[in-house]
From TrEMBL:
<protein>
    <recommendedName>
        <fullName>Stress-response A/B barrel domain-containing protein</fullName>
    </recommendedName>
</protein>
<feature type="domain" description="Stress-response A/B barrel">
    <location>
        <begin position="3"/>
        <end position="97"/>
    </location>
</feature>
<dbReference type="InterPro" id="IPR013097">
    <property type="entry name" value="Dabb"/>
</dbReference>
<dbReference type="Pfam" id="PF07876">
    <property type="entry name" value="Dabb"/>
</dbReference>
<comment type="subunit">
    <text>Homodimer.</text>
</comment>
<dbReference type="InterPro" id="IPR044662">
    <property type="entry name" value="HS1/DABB1-like"/>
</dbReference>
<dbReference type="InterPro" id="IPR011008">
    <property type="entry name" value="Dimeric_a/b-barrel"/>
</dbReference>
């Protein structure tokens, strides 16, 4: 079972030390240093903000299994990421599902 991890949040720009885009890049760099198997890491703003109810950052990635996901959560770099950016994130949602699904042919 692979695990699709999705995190959504509303950003308090006044609590950031940089622009959103710079923050996204820093988040990507920190995640890249966490030595657990993960793929398809994405961090960014919504393509259509009118449908997001104010959520303006999404982070998604896929882990090979639940144990790897748990190792990611407990890793010191992940905890550093939460400490660094947590104060700027409001109403964060973390959601995991068994993923990715089968690709269908049309």
């Amino acid at each position: 079972m692979s695990v699709l991890h999705v995190a959504l949040a509303k950003i308090d720009q006044s609590a950031l030390r940089q622009t959103k885009e710079e923050a996204f890049e820093e988040i990507r760099k920190i995640i890249a240093t966490i030595p657990v198997a993960k793929r398809d890491v994405r961090v960014g703003s919504p393509l259509n903000a009118s449908t997001t109810r104010g959520y303006d950052i999404a982070l998604t990635m896929i882990f090979d299994d639940y144990d790897t996901f748990r190792a990611y959560l407990a890793h010191p770099k992940h905890l550093e990421l939460l400490k660094r950016f947590g104060p700027a994130l409001r109403e964060m949602i973390s959601y995991q599902i068994d993923g990715p699904g089968t690709k269908a042919k049309l």
